[in-house]
Amino acid sequence: MSIKSILFSASAAALIAGCGEQAGDASGETPRQPAEGETQMLVEEAAPTREDAEAFIEKVEAWTREFGEYYARVSWVQATYINFDTNWLVTNADTEFTEQGVKFANEAKRFNGLDLPEDMTRKLEKIKLGVNLPAPERPGAAAELAEINTRMGAAYETGKIELDGEEVPRSTLETMMGEIRDPARLQEIWTKWRDVPIAADDDGNSIKSDYAKMVALANEGAQELGYADAGAMWRSRYDMTPYAFAAEMDRLWDQVKPLYDELHCHVRARLNEQYGDDIVPLDQPIRADLLGNMWAQSWGNINDLVEPEGAAPSYSLTEQLVANDYTPVKIFEAGENFFSSLGFDPLPETFWERSMLTKPADREVACHASAWDLDWADDIRVKMCTKVNADDFRTVHHELGHNYYQRAYQDRSVLFQTGANGGFHEAIGDMITLSITPTYLKQVGLIDEVPDASKDVGLLMTEALEGVAFLPFGLLMDKWRWQVFSGELTPETYNEGWWALRTQYQGIRPPVERSAADFDPGGKYHIPANVSYERYFLARVLQFQFHKAACDLAGWEGPLHRCSVYGSKAVGARFNAMLEMGAAEPWPEALAAFTGAREMDGSAIVEYFDPLMVWLKDQNAERTCGW
Ligand code: X8Z
Ligand code: ZN
To answer: Is the CB of 395 under 6 A from ligand 1?
Structure first.
């Protein structure tokens, strides 16, 4: 999370979540035309001039810079020490932010139609789209929205779950979903996790009931700003209309879907061998609790059940990290070292002094990993309950990507201190993770021998269980939210609509019957935290597109999956040219600065996984795929 995230996100919870939150984008939804009387009034008030616009922008920038730092520090304290008082503080700061942000967004509309230089128009658009969840302007509404969001965020992070009469930490339950192979036990954990969003507190509020209230308020706020609903406002942050953006997501999904379908078919067949026809029928969607992850969003933990025989990699990164005495700090140092090898400056001392890199024993914290920029400059930090394993090795690089991006664009206007689009912010560190190849691991002393090419399919399977398995989940999270915000789904159909999308896109089903009383989306952090999710889908696409461009630049000629750009200063320089732009220009310009292309494109993923695709098709030749 960055200050800008703070500035431009209407909820404390979104702040906590902050993963390079997007400030809002130039273009998008056509603003509502003023009614006749309104136009008249503006004209009579005084036609605004370019000087007025300049003064307004300066005022917003100054306020943003100052309040943003305050908001970030309050949010940091709350996220790293959740209690009554810090919730109170963050709710107040959030209220003030929303009230002021909405006022500015409305005021910015005064300058509609004025002939201004491009960067001023872009700044005004950022201001209009800036608030993540706008409250209506009527008194009390921003405070109500802030209270709801703080309460939902805190309920998610601190919700208690008992197994066999004992309270079990949430992170332990997540780990258990990856390790346990007993379907009854998996089902029990899966179900208990989803009791939290429907559990009422002493005042009768649950994540489920709060969510519906949040939707009504945010929609009212978005409509006052001239958007059809809050979902349309979110879709307007991509330098194109909300309609074009939804179509863009579908276009990219169509590019990668064949790969997912083959992976699904193979995984289901192997799970059938493990669990039998009753639990994994071969013509049905897969039971969601069998895929090694609380949300079935990435399947790396069941690698042992699905890996290609004879091609499994001869090492486990988790085991190598443990054997080499890695600690959370040492993993972060490895990440820093990678960025340094590309020519980036080392992390500031304060990163190490002020970050929260492990879970404190004695207080409630928000464990969901996030990267923060607290002062628009060098006070960058990560908040993460890091464990020493391959998953967290990857996540550390992901988070550091946010921090290096934040630092790279620190000289831009605060209104442009955000990702070129939300997907870019999430893809920076992810691009680096693709360079964590066996050759790289040997270079840094984590393995002794690079497996030969016969193991490539096994390595690609490991990678696909993360990246390819994730794609439909990344897509459907916000498809669901868009339907909720548009009113297509109502509280009575929230859960049914959720499972319709989970089945349609992921080909999975719940392990036990669900009802309208359940609220399964509320069991995923980004829903109560109001962090938009389309960014992660786009990041999966961009990550490979960036990787391919970087490998080309480094002069790599072999298969894409064996390329590591570790040590390439040329890649670092070009990468930085994109990063330092922040959101100062429409994202196609940033993309072109690094890759030469102006369109997001899934063909690099397809190329990367080609050897696995060939193998999967062969494996699936006699199987019936689909659901
Ligand atoms: O939320 C995150 C990051 C936050 S910066 C850890 N991710 C998504 C998730 O956990 O669901 C990264 C991958 C997708
Ligand atoms: Zn992130």
So the answer is: yes
Instruction: Give the H or E element holding residue 166.
Output: strand 166-167
Minimal CA–CA distance to 108: which of 238, 237, 232, 225?
225
Contact (CB, 8 A) for 496 and 284: no
Q: How far is ligand 2, taken at its centre, from the CA of residue 617, in Å?
A: 33
| pLDDT, averaged across the chain | 93
Measured from the CB, is residue 593 less than 6 Å from ligand 1? Answer: no
pLDDT of residue 570: 98
The answer for residues whose C-beta is within 8 angstroms of residue 401's C-beta and 6 or more apart is: 371, 425, 426, 427, 428, 429, 430, 431, 432
Q: Tell me the pLDDT tens digit for each residue of 526-549.
A: 999 999 999 999 999 999 999 999
Q: What is the pLDDT of residue 314?
A: 80
pLDDT at 195 > cutoff 70 = yes
Residues that are catalytic: 368-369, 398-399, 402, 426, 526, 536
The pLDDT tens digits of the residues spanning 41-54 come to 544 567 899 999 99
Distance CA 468, CA 489 (A): 28
SS3 382: strand
CA–centroid distance, 451 to ligand 2, in Å, is: 31
Is ligand 1 within 6 A of the CB of residue 536? Answer: yes
Residues with CB under 5 A from ligand 2 (ion): 19, 426
Residue 10's pLDDT band, with cuts at 50, 70 and 90, is very low
- The β-bridge relationship of strands 286-287 and 370-373 is unpaired
Query: How many whole angstroms from 546 Cα to the centroid of ligand 1?
Result: 19
Query: For residue 27, what pLDDT band results from cuts at 50, 70 and 90?
Result: very low
DSSP per-residue codes, 455-490: GHHHHHHHHHHHHHHHHHHHHHHHHHHHHHHHTSS-
CB 506 within 8 A of CB 253: no
Pocket test for ligand 1, best of 1, 298, 367, 368 (most atoms within 8 A of CB): 368
Neighbours of 41 (CB within 10 A): 11
Amino acid found at 441:
L
Q: Rounded to two decimals, what is the model's pTM? A: 0.93
Is the separation of the CB atoms in 548 and 600 below 8 Å?
A: no
Nearest to 609 by CA among 316, 162, 212, 257: 257
Question: What b-and-e string marks burial along 423-447, b requiring 16 or more CB atoms within 10 Å of the CB?
Answer: bbbbbbbbbbbbbbbbebbeeeebb
